[in-house]
Amino acid sequence: MPINDSKYWDEHLECMPREELEANQLKDLKEIVQFAYDNSPYYKRSFDEAGVKPSDIKTLKDIEKFPFINKKTQRDTQGVGSFLGELCAVDEKDVVFISTSSGSTGVPTISPFTQKDFDEFQDTEARWFWQVGMRPTDRYVHALNFSLYVGGPDVIGAQRTGALCIWGGTLPSERLLWVLKTYQPSVIWTSPSYAWQLGEKALKSGIDPKKDLNIKTIIVAGELGGSISATRNAIEELWGAQVFDFYGLSDIFGACAAMCEYKDGLHIAENHILVETVDPATGKVLPPGSKGEFVFTTLRKHARPLIRFRTGDIGWIDTSKCKCGRTHGRIHVLGRKDDMFIVSAVNVFPSDVEAGIRSISGITGEYLIRIFEKDFTCKYSVEVEKKFDNLDSDENVADLVSKSLKARIGVKPYSVVVHKDGDLNTRSEHKSKRIIDERTSKPE
Ligand SMILES: [Zn+2]
User: Fold this and answer.
1) Rg of the chain over CA atoms, in angstroms?
2) In what residue span(s) does the AMP-dependent synthetase/ligase domain sit (predicted)?
3) Domain 340-437: which topology?
4) Among the four 36, 165, 281, 426, which has the fewest Cβ within 10 Å?
């Protein structure tokens, strides 16, 4: 823990000049690529087949010579040769923890940690909690699933800041509201949609989150809402609190990146992750700052190094120094590659639709997107809920939504369906399902 009340968890690490940061990345990259080649049967075979060797890495750009891996590589190699599979580079006796992915897009994949991997994971998490202002005087509720999920153990990182931590897990909302009211915690971490629903639920049960609760900081992750300013502002207004977005990958850490007080992208732990951005269709490496698919190489995780892992997330990275003084780049995540759809030659992410909807008052912010084909072209329609105290006609509400989406995305929805408050079945205590894709011919 920092000795004095520094604004940084580890000032030297977080603010070092880019040249020093990149020199450290190169040193770690050389080591991890060699370690992967020497200890993982998969990497040995794949590097040999591609005709590359660890000594080919002379600069950070040399990583571009190495083959990609993806979720499918993880699935195909899992359980092959040993319980942990061929991507793993240590004996099972050296592994102290595994988490698994949610399996929402197929067979769950295992992410193993050695003790050192785990300790460095928690030190990184502590850095994020500190970055959003959590201090030893805070009380923190960790309202994330503990079962198998990599976000559960982040509470250990939270404890490293010296804050009083309450291991909430996925408590039913009545019980969680009781915790918030009785223990008066100041910081909570949950998903953006759940932060919204919990606030609404509090109001409906006679608790005003602004007056009756003491939440000052809400950390959100798992969905894009925290990076959509309209959604963030709506949650901040409801709770009278600051909202900070975190970004994690079950394959790496509970949170790999986090907002600072300037909320202009999320600082990514570049001491652990080498970030590339590639064309999602061709895999061609794009210059930093271009929009594309993030490809991550883990620089220090020994149990299962990830060398050029295609994340499926689309975004861009800004490596200029932030106003907060930190030099680690800031990622802007736009959405999952698989969720993007193209309407009238415009690339649309569900997050664009969400931003358009959440900027309108008089509707609840719940929404459902339907993607379908009509006359061989892709269309989208949206369903929204009118707030119970909104006296405007459904036609007017639909017109407002349509205009807002046209202004933000450039393409009007095919139709807007307006439901009554509470009638849309999208509320969930975990990740909400908000997209129905009815296309018969989907893009690759
Ligand atoms: Zn910053």
Assistant:
1) 22
2) 80-296
3) GMP Synthetase; Chain A, domain 3 (3.30.300)
4) 281
pLDDT (average), residues 95-123: 90
Q: Are the CB atoms for 139 and 185 separated by under 8 Å?
A: yes
Average pLDDT over residues 149-169: 95
Report CA(12)–ligand 1 centroid distance (Å): 15
Rounded to the nearest whole angstrom, what is the distance from the C-alpha of residue 321 to the centroid of ligand 1?
Answer: 8
Give start-end residues of each CATH 3.30.300.30 domain in the chain: 340-437
Determine the distance separating the centroid of ligand 1 and the alpha carbon of 13, expressed in angstroms. Answer: 14
Highest mean pLDDT among 3-17, 43-57, 217-231: 43-57
pLDDT at residue 64, rounded to an integer: 98
pTM of the predicted structure, to 2 decimals: 0.87
Query: Which residues, chain by chain, have CB under 5 Å from ion ligand 1?
Result: 260, 322, 324, 326
Dump pLDDT digits (tens) for 195-216. 998 999 999 999 999 999 999 9
Task: Write out the residue limits of the CATH 3.40.50.12780 domain(s) in the chain.
Answer: 1-336
Compute the distance from residue 324 Cα to the ligand 1 centre, in Å.
4
Domain 1-336, second-level architecture: 3-Layer(aba) Sandwich (3.40)
